Amino acid sequence: MALDFPPALNLSNFSKEDSYNKIEAEILRLKEQIRSLLSVRNTHSPVSSLPNELLAKIFMHCCDFNELGRYSNIHPGDDDDEDDRAQPDMRLVVSWVSHHWRSVALGHRPLWNLVVNLRDSLDLDYVRSCAARCQHLLVDLARPTKGLLNACIANMSRITYFKLDISSSTTVPAAKSIRRIWTQAAPHLEALRLHSVHVHNNDARKRLVYPKLQILSLVDCNYRWTFVASLASTISKLEIIDPENTITVPSCVRLLESMPRLSECTLYSCLMVSDNPTPAMPCARLLQLTMMTIANTVGHLIPLLRAIDIPGAMVNLFLDERESIDQGAAELFCTL
């Protein structure tokens, strides 16, 4: 590359104003020349010789994605941690390094399929830009605004993972916006995680179209168990954490029996208020179940465990803290 460094400027015949303007022009020219030199230097760096496919995988690693884009690695951190909320979006960081990196980043669709909101607001144009660059979306919203929620729900047909947490929101999104969740078809949705969300049961029973749903998590949500039952046939992982919502043992057994693919089940503080299941009720065989976690009173755990057959499952029990450790323990362990 030919470099053209001029001799020192001769400003003796110019006024102060003209001299200032010439110096400014020369500074701009030299800055442009420096920028060109830096660009040439970048092309000779080792990282510039990496294939685009490998560079894209490095970007995915920087952004805390794993290769398959599964759901275990998409949460950057605790929503209450200021340091996490202050972290820049690494997808933008890598796209600012150079024209080549920006081209690779923008051209790699899986890099843009995550819409995560750890702050009180997220630019809607940014959400739309992510949606325009990828075929499927993973959405993780905490304290979303009405506009942000509407923007994501408008793309429900392309969402594979949807998490909505409004537990600590000072301004809960309008009920009409949340209701749209149950009226939108989501043919690619594989995981649905809701926290403190009101489920519109009538709409959900009539219109839910989630043929690929595998993971369902409801934490402190206002819903009916018929909503869970309507999704039972494809569920492989179920998590219910709700001290206010109750289900009887017979109903719980029938619900679990309707989930032939269930491999992990968590029922926490679902007060199963009932007597022992009726003798005529068949034992529910959950042969695919590998992990079951239940938190409840001994009096409700015993009839439930008697009514289900889980030969290959690890069982984690959390007893009500108000109970004595010896209360019913012998009978409970005999049941196991």
Structural commentary:
The termini are far apart. The protein folds into 2 domains: about 50-235, no CATH class; about 260-335. About 35% of the residues lie in helices and about 15% in strands. The longest helix is centred in the N-terminal third of the chain and has 28 residues, at about 15-45. Strand 6 (about 235-240), helix 11 (about 250-255) and strand 7 (about 265-270) form a beta-alpha-beta unit. With about 325 residues, the protein is an alpha/beta fold. Mean pLDDT is about 75; it is low at about 65-85. Helix 12 (about 300-305) runs parallel beside helix 13 (about 330-335). The radius of gyration is 29 Å and the shape is elongated.
Helix content: 25-40%
The biggest sheet amounts to: 9 strands, parallel
Low-pLDDT segments, ≥5 res: 66-86
Number of helices: 13
Strand order of the largest sheet: 1-2-3-4-5-6-7-9-11
Number of DSSP strand runs: 11
End-to-end C-alpha gap = 78 Å
SSE order in H/E notation? HHHHHEHEHEHEHEHEHEEEHEEH
Radius of gyration: 29 Å
Q: Classify the secondary structure makeup into a structural class.
A: alpha/beta
Write down the overall mean pLDDT. Answer: 75
**Strand residue percentage:** 15-25%
Shape: elongated
How many domains, as an integer?
2
